[in-house]
Specification:
Distance between the termini: 50 Å
Bound molecules: beta-D-galactopyranose
Largest sheet: 8 strands, parallel
Strand content: 15-25%
Number of helices: 12
Shape: globular
Structural class: alpha/beta
Number of strands: 18
Radius of gyration: 23 Å
Strand order of the largest sheet: 9-8-7-6-5-2-1-10
Length: about 400
């Protein structure tokens, strides 16, 4: 009897121990964050009226309904610290709490930016030595997202004299802010920005990051976007719900690429399960850009609940095939032509482990292709055909 009872207790104890070990559902960033960030278009020329205008646009133009949520202020909002050390916004942001309330009233969330060093990259006040105080200030304002950019911590890391010591400084700094944010008990997405140094994808999650930049800055030019996006090959195993690789913000709508190239940009980011942070001026957007940013089929590939990042399956010169596994056994497939001329591309679905014909949707044309077992098409220069294969 005792034996049975003990066995029961042991089983219950084992269960109790096992339960917390089961992957806890991420409370923030269960799918890659979607929103807008000020930097790509406005850089440090940002003010509260511009931010309000972005929130107004997102709430009115269909982006909110398509899943976009965060209105993120990047570098340039900071003013001075008061004698007690509390950070205040500069005079272009007269009332940060009122701004957060306004963004929240639109059904959206507010993001902000700082650095673990003494100064940010644009020379504004950083958080070093004020981490707990800053996290509390952000939470009191109603901030929902923090991008934490290495910037001026770099020199202290170099002065440390060895890679190990430099990394210890960096990890401690990122952990410190993570703990400070957690202590506020407000769910705040934590975005690490250190440009992909030191294989951040291997440790970004362990310091509390929900996403981490894997590269230097994007530019609104096809060669740089392609270098960054296609350069993500091999990183898929490091992403999962709550922890995402971040190949930087979108340039869609900023004018430096043509619509074909912007569709490539958006398709690649969706296959990469990348954060979708629009980087254009949402209040003056052309219909092409809006259609690209709000294509529901593309967004559903990015936001697929399985949270599996896609990866490159093959590259033959400039012709690349990328695949993202989807929940329920479907697949998203991108046929990319990186060359400067149109090219014939083909894929036999057997190559992707798909047996038999499957219903297939050409995402950008919106055409259902019926059950097929292979596909071929002429893909435009710098273009893509993005397919969604049913299970
Ligand atoms: C860079 C960062 C950019 C932007 C900028 C602000 O280091 O990669 O995304 O945040 O700083 O100064």
């Amino acid at each position: 009897m005792n034996l049975i009872r003990n066995a029961g207790l042991a089983a219950a104890a084992a269960l109790a121990i096992a339960r917390p070990a089961l992957a806890a559902e991420p409370t923030v960033a269960a799918t890659p964050p979607m929103g807008w960030n000020s930097w790509n278009h406005f850089a440090a020329r940002i003010d509260h009226a511009t931010v309000r205008a972005q929130a107004d646009a997102m709430a009115a133009n269909g982006m909110r309904e398509a899943g976009y949520r965060y209105i993120n202020i990047d570098d340039g909002w900071q003013g001075q610290r008061d004698p007690a050390g509390a950070i205040h916004p500069n005079d272009r942001f007269p009332d940060m709490k009122a701004l957060a309330d306004y963004v929240h009233s639109k059904g959206l969330k507010l993001g902000i930016y700082s650095s673990p060093g003494p100064k940010t990259c644009a020379g504004f006040e950083g958080s070093q030595g004020h981490e707990v105080q800053d996290a509390q200030t952000y939470a009191a304002w109603g901030v929902d997202y923090l991008k934490y950019d290495l910037c001026s911590l770099g020199p202290a890391m170099i002065a440390a004299g060895s890679i190990e010591k430099a990394q210890a400084i960096e990890l401690a700094a990122y952990r410190k802010m993570s703990a400070a944010l957690r202590a506020t008990r407000r769910p705040i997405v934590y975005s690490l920005c250190q440009y992909g140094f030191d294989q951040v994808w291997r440790w970004g999650g362990s310091v509390g990051g929900n996403l981490w930049r894997t590269t230097g800055d994007i530019e609104d030019k096809y060669p740089r976007m392609a270098e960054i996006g296609f350069g993500q090959a091999g990183l898929s195993k490091y992403a999962k719900p709550g922890q995402w690789n971040d190949p930087d913000m979108l340039e869609v709508g900023n004018g430096g690429m043509n619509p074909t190239e912007y569709r490539t940009h958006m398709s690649l980011w969706a296959l990469l399960a990348a954060p979708l942070l629009a980087g254009n001026d949402l209040s003056r957007m052309n219909p092409d850009a809006l259609a690209i940013l709000t294509n529901r089929d593309v967004i559903s590939i990015d936001q697929d609940p399985a949270g599996q990042q896609g990866d490159r399956v093959r590259a033959e010169g400039p012709l690349e095939l990328w695949v993202k596994p989807l929940a329920g056994g479907g697949k998203a497939v991108g046929l990319f032509n990186r060359s400067d001329l149109p090219a014939e591309m083909a894929v036999d679905f057997a190559e992707l482990g798909v047996s038999g014909p499957v219903r297939t949707r050409d995402v950008w044309s919106g055409q259902d292709l019926g059950p097929i077992h292979s596909y071929q098409a002429t893909v435009p220069a710098h273009g893509v055909v993005l397919l969604r294969l049913s299970s």
